[in-house]
Design goal:
Length: about 350
């Protein structure tokens, strides 16, 4: 086996267009999964980096390829609802209605694990996270592989998650044998992670919102780590949250406040950065683009439809990162899909926030 400079196995990464060649691509992908190798594949949230979820050695390759800390557990992806039965030791009481309503889709459920699950998947926890994705290619790949596929996002650890095959190639090219290219991901942020181990608790917000969940099962808690840096005692509940995440190389600053106020402050910060000869770019919205004429900016979407901001956030961060040393981004209300947006944005910014509504 060839090795690259870090001692990682080296591959000539193949990219197969899974829209035109879904059958051929998923057959080849399934063979690799069964052989204990890694395959990157599209889902409706972000691209995943998959391995046979029942093979600890194969799962360990995911951590090596991404540079992921070993104590950050993975999600098992299944092809049909009934597959969950052998992965959990018991089905929590709220699980059935949630699975019937939101699966297939961007909701991951955490429950006590069965003896089938290797420790590499759960990072030694006694619970396991499971999701049934909507994406056709993802489902075909899992069904053909005939095993649950363990997969985190297919980025180098710490980087913004990949929403196109090109993002995966940029991060993992040469480190994995195959990428299935399914075009741009629909939601653009990772799944909602809901723990059903005791009181239902959102560990990571996503397109299935707290509001949607509690309409169905009553009170749903939100982990304190979602909008603030992780505290020591929360590590066991939500291991992924303690690491730096989604971070471009550029400095990212979040500016809170009503649209016009935020835009005014961003203008001032932009001018100050230019005066220091720093390259700077703005993550703007439909409501504010008029205030940024003549300034470098990307319009992510509509502040009143935060799912549009979610869909473009990671690709915009990657694009701006290639040009700018400083990224100025508008914050929005952390409710509905805005909670997922602010969770990712605040982490990308390392929690550097300016509140334009003050003074
Ligand atoms: P990824 O989508 O790339 O970051 O990885 C999966 C996410 O699910 C991470 O944030 C993990 O911390 C979370 N996760 C996976 N398994 C569990 C589990 N058993 N308990 C709590 N969180 C989990
Ligand atoms: Mg990730």
């Amino acid at each position: 086996m060839r090795k690259d400079r870090d001692g990682q196995p080296a591959f000539d990464t193949e990219v197969i267009n899974a829209i035109r060649q879904e059958e051929a691509g998923t057959i080849q992908g399934a063979k690799l999964i069964q052989a204990g190798e890694l395959v990157a594949f599209p889902t409706e949230t972000v691209y995943g980096l998959g391995a046979d979820g029942l093979n600890g050695e194969a799962v360990a390759k995911i951590f090596a390829a991404k540079g992921r800390p070993a104590d950050n557990p993975l999600i098992l992806h299944i092809a049909k609802k009934s597959d969950v039965r052998r992965l959990w030791s018991r089905i929590p009481k709220q699980a059935s209605i949630l699975m019937d309503t939101f699966w297939p889709g961007p909701l991951t459920l955490v429950a006590p694990k069965s003896d089938l699950i290797p420790d590499e998947v759960t990072a030694g926890l006694d619970t396991v996270a499971v999701r049934l994705p909507q994406n056709k290619t993802a489902r075909a790949l899992i069904a053909k592989a005939g095993v649950p596929i363990a997969a985190p996002s297919a980025n180098r650890s710490g980087r913004p998650s990949p929403t196109t095959a090109q993002h995966v190639l940029d991060d993992l090219g040469g480190r994995i044998p195959l990428i299935l290219d399914g075009g741009s991901c629909h939601y653009g942020v990772e799944s909602t992670v809901l723990s059903l181990v005791s009181e239902p608790t959102i560990l990571r917000p996503g397109a299935i919102t707290r509001e949607m969940l509690s309409a169905l099962i009553g009170e749903v808690r939100v982990s304190a780590s979602i909008l603030s840096p992780m505290k020591e005692d929360e590590i066991a509940a939500s291991p992924g949250m303690k690491y730096q995440h989604y971070a471009p190389l550029a400095e990212v600053v979040v500016v809170l406040g009503a649209p016009q106020q935020a835009a005014k402050r961003i203008n001032a910060l932009y001018r100050a950065a230019e005066a220091e000869e720093r390259s700077v770019e703005i993550a703007a919205t439909e409501q504010t683009k008029q205030f940024y004429r003549g300034m470098r900016h990307i319009v992510l979407g509509d502040r009143n439809a935060p799912e549009t901001l979610c869909a473009n956030l990671f690709s915009a961060l990657r694009e701006m990162d290639s040009r700018a040393e400083l990224i100025l981004a508008e914050g929005i209300a952390a409710e509905d899909e805005g909670l997922a947006y602010m969770n990712r944005l605040l982490r990308a910014a390392g929690f550097v926030v300016i509140d334009a509504s003050k003074e």
